Amino acid sequence: MKFFIDTAEIDEIRPLVDLGLVDGVTTNPSLILKSGRDIFEVTKEICDLVDGPVSAEVAATDYATMVKEAAALYDIAENVCLKVPLTPDGLKTCKHFSDQGKMVNVTLCFSASQALLAAKAGATFISPFVGRLDDVAHNGMSLIQDIRTIYDNYNFDTQILVASTRHNLHILESALIGADVATIPPKVVHQLFKHPLTDSGLAAFVEDWKKTGQTISG
Ligand code: G3P
User: Where are the beta strands (DSSP E) in 91-180?
Assistant: First the structure.
């Protein structure tokens, strides 16, 4: 499963790139706002830092303006993946650019029928928001399972990009279901490292090693 990082903060992305954990990045208008950066400048910096797809979202909600904004966003770098909302205008924009072989991420997906529409519009990625479904007492992960089944039934190429991930279990269950990608906030990536037995085991090894009085030198 690929890891995309769900942030527009360069300082949070860089250390994860150094760990080899970044297959792509996703941004959205709220993340751009949080970063306090200009969308063009920050998207360019992220694209230079990361080899994989970097999702940049349109702000418009009508087809004609989305197409104009898309042209400007695609111009930033080769690895820009356009992000459009799951609306009729968004899917029309998706089809327009996927027909030209460009990457499109369809976002704000909350149902399997919406995911079916995105696949038929040629989306490269579908972004179902699991955390926001959990927030309203729906089972976010069962949506991922349903989309997996539907896409496998018809061999759709659209990749399932699990979004709005909030904790370890979302990532683990995404991998068990066979989602193609999870986009993960940096703090959740760091949580994936954590296990109390790793911490206590390491502390014991460090103490025992001191007692040997030995050093390892190259
Ligand atoms: O990329 C969009 C997304 O992951 C939203 O997450 O936490 O705002 O629901 P959240």
Answer: 104-109, 125-128, 159-162
